[in-house]
Amino acid sequence: MSEIAAETNRIVAFPQAVAAAPVDENTASMIEVLQEQLRLAREGKLRSVAVVSVSSDGGAIGTQWSCTHGDITSLIGKLTVLTHDMMAARK
């Protein structure tokens, strides 16, 4: 077998490109907020960040944070209150 024929046998076709997902205003809004927070963090303008996440069906609420030692008590308290308020509004 010649080198050209051997090279041809190793060619793999790329899969078709993924179709663009429809634009979702809620998802775009979440991404925009996260990008703004990342920009502020990169610029050193943030010392703490807290996030409350709600599942798409509303059945699960989670909290995450990254903060300095002195901020943790305040952030946990605020996230707890916010989580309870969100759960109460869901009912």
Parts with pLDDT < 50 across at least 5 consecutive residues: none
Annotation, overall tally of beta strands? 2
Number of H- or I-type helical stretches: 3
Name the helicity range: 40-55%
- Please tell me the overall pLDDT: 81
Structural class: alpha+beta
Strand order of the largest sheet: 1-2
Radius of gyration: 23 Å
Tell me the overall shape.
Answer: elongated
Compressed to H and E, one letter per element, the order equals: HHEEH
Largest sheet geometry: 2 strands, antiparallel
Q: Give the distance, in angstroms, between the N- and C-terminal Cα atoms.
A: 72 Å
How big a fraction of the residues is strand? 5-15%
Give structural attributes:
two-stranded antiparallel ribbon
Describe what this molecule looks like in 3D.
By secondary structure, this protein is α+β, with helices and mostly antiparallel strands. 48% of the residues lie in helices and 13% in strands. It is built from three helices and two strands. Strands 1-2 form a two-stranded antiparallel ribbon. A hairpin with a 6-residue loop joins β1 (49-54) and β2.
Summarize the helices and strands and which ones pair or pack.
Elements: H1 3-9, H2 25-42, E1 49-54, E2 61-66, H3 72-90
Summarize the structure.
With 91 residues, the chain is of the alpha+beta class.
